[in-house]
Amino acid sequence: MRILLIEDDEALADMLLQCLTSQHYAVDTASDGKMGWEYAQGTPYDLILIDVGLPKLDGISLCRRLRSQACSTPILLMTAREATSDRIQGLDAGADDYLIKPLNLDELQARVRALLRRGAIPTTPVLQVGELQLDPSSCKVTFAGKPLSLTPKEYSLIELFMRNPSRVFSRGNIVEHLWTYDDPPQEETVKAHIKGLRQKLKTAGAENWIENVYGIGYRLNPNLDSESNVGAGFTNNLTTQTDKGTKP
Q1: What is the pLDDT of residue 178?
Q2: Do 222 and 129 meet the contact criterion of CB atoms below 8 Å apart?
Q3: 217 three-class SS
Q4: How far is Cα 78 from Cα 8, in angstroms, rounded to an integer?
Q5: Running DSSP on this structure, what letter comes out for residue 150?
Q6: Do 94 and 172 belong to one domain?
């Protein structure tokens, strides 16, 4: 999941960035409304967090502009203004939710989860592909009931694959979904994370679940494991029959 955070208070922006990335979201940050507008035009986001009192283009005006351009991304406004009229103004501008500063981080995380659920295509709370399960609310991944210990990027990778079964992701697609403009990966970084995830899936019993589609990218394909097992079974059976045929 990719979030755009538009906040001019550097200390607060850093705190919110840490809060959101700890929940495995990829987060881009902008320090004024104009920059936020440019980011929103160039990248598809799952959620946009906007401070109302932004320089260059205030949060209410930015929200209106986004909605006027048919942007349907969920928007959460943040402000120190407590008046009911201010909240009404923000919601009428097109915001989906409104938080009063100082922010409670637990409440922020809960509202973010709720808005992401609202903006996404309806899915079951727990993602499941075969015996592989991912619980977004707890960020836990299991295979055949056994937990997998994944790094944040490995978790984000498997979530991306599970939310888009059979879709092939190029390296560029993966970078776009999981990294921010301020944190571009090195050339071999994506391959290294794929390799680490494959190894952990293999150890858990899902040996060939990530398919390398030559010249295109990667996708989740549990059928590869089944095909591999069938092939191994056929070979073993053929070997057994051959052995029997050579016996006197």
Answers
A1: 84
A2: yes
A3: strand
A4: 12
A5: -
A6: no
Q: What local confidence, expressed as pLDDT, does residue 11 receive? A: 94
pLDDT at 241: 47
2: which DSSP letter? E
Determine the structural domain holding residue 166 and report its residue range: 127-227
Task: For residues 184 and 135, give the distance between their C-alpha atoms in angstroms, rounded to a whole number.
Answer: 27
Q: Is 209 helix (H, G, I), strand (E, B) or coil?
A: coil
Are both 92 and 136 inside the same structural domain? no
Query: What's 185's DSSP letter?
Result: P
pLDDT at 242: 45
pLDDT along the chain (248 residues), means of 10: 93 94 90 94 90 94 92 92 84 92 93 83 70 86 92 91 88 85 79 93 90 90 63 45 45
Specify the residue for token string 């999941």. Answer: 1
SS3 readout for 69-123:
CCCCCCEEEEECCCCHHHHHHHHHCCCCEEEECCCCHHHHHHHHHHHHHHHCCCC
User: Measuring CA to CA, how many Å separate 57 from each of 30, 52, 72, 196?
Assistant: 12, 9, 20, 43
Q: Quick check: is 247 in a domain?
A: no
What is the reported pLDDT for 33?
Answer: 95
Residue 119: per-residue pLDDT: 66
Give the contacts of 114 (CB within 8 A, at least 6 positions apart).
Answer: 97
Question: Residue 235 to residues 207, 208, 242: CA-CA distances in angstroms?
Answer: 18, 18, 10
Are 19 and 50 members of one domain?
yes
C-alpha span between 87 and 85 (Å, rounded):
5
What does 161-179 look like in DSSP terms, one character per residue? HHHSTT--B-HHHHHHHH-
